[in-house]
Amino acid sequence: MSKYLVHPASTVGGTIRVPGDKSISHRSLMLGGIADGVTEVRGFLESEDCLSTMKAMQALGVRIERTGAQEVRVHGVGLHGLRAADHPLDMGNAGTAMRLMAGLLSGQSFDSELVGDSSLMKRPMERVAKPLREMGARIETLDGKPPVRIKGGAQLTGIRYELPVASAQVKSSILLAGLYAKGETTVVEPAVTRDHTERMLQSFGCEVSAAQGEVRLHPPARLEPCSLEVPGDFSSSAFFLVAGSIAQGNGLTLSGVGINPTRTGLLDILALMGANLRVVNHRSAGAEPVADIEVRPAQLKGIHVPEHLVPLAIDEFPVLFIAAACAEGETLVTGAEELRVK
Known about the structure:
Layout: E1 11-16, H1 22-33, E2 38-42, H2 48-59, E3 63-68, E4 71-75, E5 89-90, H3 95-105, E6 112-115, H4 126-134, E7 138-142, E8 145-151, E9 160-162, H5 168-178, E10 185-188, H6 196-203, E11 207-211, E12 214-218, E13 227-229, H7 234-246, E14 248-258, H8 265-272, E15 276-285, E16 288-296, H9 317-326
Parallel strand pairs: 1-14, 2-13, 5-6, 9-10
Antiparallel strand pairs: 2-4, 3-4, 6-8, 7-8, 10-12, 11-12, 14-16, 15-16
Helix pairs in contact: 1-2, 1-6, 3-5, 4-5, 7-9
């Protein structure tokens, strides 16, 4: 087991680039794996969670090459080219991967089983299983938790599903199942959630639209392979944004960060708390907006976090609470029910 010794530091400064976005890395493997042809991915996050997704796709018959540091080549087998794995698919600790794979596998011709580590095996899966069953999937959980067992050969039908709680994972699982469904699939969101799945589906040539809280998908005949560039992970950047705000120093610059507006609620929250932030050098990485973020020390103040920003910052709440602990006054968060099932 590795051990790390950390010494306190009074100042923070310099320029850094954080690793690639985990959410986008997961999706690049899944959609690249069912595209017709080769998809090149640059900036891929080589984390345990993403490597679990890689192993699962390989077990389903997709050839994936690691062509360089943070680069992978995915040899897609087409929408109907996946084959049955000869063992349960171990998703490790990746809740996102398990929930999205449940949707992807619901429309296959073969049986599948999804398992994970001791932590993942305790997490709720019925919130994805329920809408998938409404689409016609034959999916079982054990008292609402993994293992998730999916019977192959189900004939899926597109549905209109209203999310009871805003969740990008549930939305994405339904959309992935919708690739194999007859007719249009519509997901209605009570609040905006991250839209990486929709953006990437469009990059692969799928017809997806979003307006007034509704996301619609028309099942394609095929997915076109493409080249993807994964921007820096905003959730990883969040720790440095808070560190740069509460520590002394000449300022910190984070380069090449994904600033998808469905992910950057923390920027708005920190600004309301009085943080000194600048977003500069705007550009794009495929369908995703990218920029550099400059942060300088500031005296933060406690606020009541606006509820409309909660779904846009849900993954950054642990580090937000560090900022709140260092702020003057009370910080209050409401409307964060999704935290119970992350």
